Amino acid sequence: MRRYEESIIEFDEIQAPHTKWSTVYEILDSFSWAMLLVMVLFTFFCRPFWVSGNSMEPTLQNHNWVAVTTIGFHAQRGDIVVVTQPNARHEPLIKRIIAVEGDTVDIDAQAHTVSVNGEILDEPYISEPIEKSGDMTFPIRVPQGHVFVMGDNRNDSLDSRSSMIGFIDTRYLAGRAAFRLIPVGQWKIG
Question: In terms of residue numbers, what domain contains 7?
Answer without folding.
Answer: 2-44
